[in-house]
């Protein structure tokens, strides 16, 4: 299982290689957390200034053409032509406000466009801006009213060069193209924002999965800590208790017990040092020594016998090396915890460790001890060892049962998948 460093930061918005000026402000402020604060308008980018100036220039050019057409139109009085031109000039200047008030500008250009040919370019820019920056309902109302007034406009002010029907069709199609173009630009921007949100969600989910994997790894390390240290410390407790209650024991037994205490303390410190190293490195495979497998059961039984326990190992697996490492490690920890519990709660009782199985059938391991002679000692315990073993077996795809036996003893039985 791989984990990540504990220093996990919240994912930042996607970078754009210093080319923010290529994006519109309506999009770029979504990538800048500070720009999304309430009451703060997105600042214009260089692209915005270029687009705004182009729109203003286009409105002016169309306005000049419209002003010439008004001057040459015999159906328009001179005074109305002057008002038309001044109104168109103001409408062109108002194009610079299209980003701040797109709806208001589009609504205001509807009556203006009814009597001013010079404002035609500004009206088109306002309608296009509305389609880009506002939802479709606003575009539908303003665009629908604009299209509905086109026949009335050419009825009041006929075009000197085009017939009534041709002029109406051309301007209706032009309005529809402007609206469609604006909606296409808006859809493209929304797609960019959607991809950005999807990227953020993917990074957040990846971070959460990494944190979950890290938490599972730490829980596994905690179980290893309990299984390993409980076994070592139990040896210390047993031999220290023997020295306490038998101070007159022969010198050879005292020396042997002291040697076991020293070795167990050294092994416990070594295991604790490895666990701390794993926690610091963040990787479960960084331990200094290889993890025990099923082949290490003989050494575990011999170690318990040296501590004074009566252990009978019945290993019917013909080739322990063929057992998968994860399954063998789980079986080893089950046997280790069973021997530790038997040593604490049933001192002096003979413990039987049985292992059997084959590929395709699974691996079965049991640790049993009879009721000890005399009074059962009261040893404090939290019960977390058996809970951890149950979780370990479940994670390995197996099952574990434990509890008192009919003869008053205690047994632990587990089945683990193999192949």
Automatic annotation (TrEMBL):
Enzyme Commission number, as recorded: 2.7.13.3
This protein's record includes keyword Thylakoid: no
Domain of life according to the entry: Bacteria
Residue span, Signal transduction histidine kinase subgroup 3 dimerisation and phosphoacceptor domain: 218-282
GO cellular component terms listed in the entry, alphabetical order: membrane
GO molecular function: ATP binding; phosphorelay sensor kinase activity; protein dimerization activity
Protein name: histidine kinase
TM stretches of this protein: 49-67, 105-131, 138-156, 162-184
CDD domains: 7tm_classA_rhodopsin-like, HATPase_UhpB-NarQ-NarX-like
Catalytic reactions of this protein: ATP + protein L-histidine = ADP + protein N-phospho-L-histidine
Uppermost EC category: transferase
Keywords carried by this UniProt record: ATP-binding, Kinase, Membrane, Nucleotide-binding, Phosphoprotein, Transferase, Transmembrane, Transmembrane helix, Two-component regulatory system
UniProt key word Magnesium: no
Organism: Streptomyces resistomycificus
InterPro entries on file: HATPase_C_sf, Sensor_HK_TwoCompSys, Sig_transdc_His_kin_sub3_dim/P
């Amino acid at each position: 299982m791989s984990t990540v460093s504990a220093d996990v930061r919240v994912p930042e918005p996607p970078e754009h290689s210093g080319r923010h000026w290529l994006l519109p402000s309506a999009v770029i402020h979504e990538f800048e957390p500070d720009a999304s604060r309430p009451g703060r308008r997105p600042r214009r980018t260089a692209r915005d200034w270029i687009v705004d100036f182009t729109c203003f220039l286009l409105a002016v050019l169309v306005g000049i053409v419209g002003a010439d057409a008004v001057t040459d139109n015999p159906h328009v009085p001179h005074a109305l032509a002057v008002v038309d031109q001044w109104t168109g000039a103001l409408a062109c200047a108002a194009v610079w406000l299209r980003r701040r008030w797109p709806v208001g500008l589009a609504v205001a250009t509807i009556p203006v466009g009814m009597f001013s040919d010079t404002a035609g370019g500004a009206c088109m820019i306002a309608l296009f801006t509305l389609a880009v920056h506002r939802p479709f309902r606003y575009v539908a109302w303003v665009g629908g009213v604009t299209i509905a007034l086109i026949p009335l406009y050419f009825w009041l002010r006929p075009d000197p060069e085009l017939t009534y029907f041709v002029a109406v069709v051309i301007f209706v199609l032009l309005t529809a193209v402007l609206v469609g173009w604006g909606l296409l630009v808006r859809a493209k921007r929304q797609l960019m924002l959607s991809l950005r949100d999807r990227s953020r969600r993917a990074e957040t989910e990846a971070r959460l999965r990494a944190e979950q994997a890290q938490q599972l790894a730490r829980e596994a390390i905690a179980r290893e800590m309990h299984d390993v240290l409980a076994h070592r410390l139990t040896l210390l407790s047993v031999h220290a208790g023997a020295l306490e209650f038998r101070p007159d024991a022969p010198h050879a037994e005292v020396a042997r017990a002291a040697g076991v205490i020293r070795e167990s303390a050294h092994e416990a410190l070594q295991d604790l040092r490895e666990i701390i190293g794993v926690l610091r490195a963040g990787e479960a495979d960084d331990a200094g020594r290889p993890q025990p497998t099923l082949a290490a059961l003989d050494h575990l039984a011999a170690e318990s016998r040296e501590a004074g326990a009566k252990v009978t190992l019945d290993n019917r697996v013909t080739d322990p090396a063929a057992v998968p490492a994860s399954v063998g490690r789980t079986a080893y920890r089950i046997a280790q915890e069973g021997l530790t519990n038997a040593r604490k709660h049933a001192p002096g009782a003979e413990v039987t460790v049985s292992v059997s199985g084959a590929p395709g059938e699974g691996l079965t391991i049991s640790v049993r001890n009879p009721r000890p002679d005399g009074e059962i000692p009261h040893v404090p315990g939290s019960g977390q060892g058996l809970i951890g073993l149950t979780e370990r077996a479940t994670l390995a795809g197996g099952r574990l049962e434990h509890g008192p036996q009919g003869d008053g003893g205690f047994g632990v039985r587990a089945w683990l998948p193999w192949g």
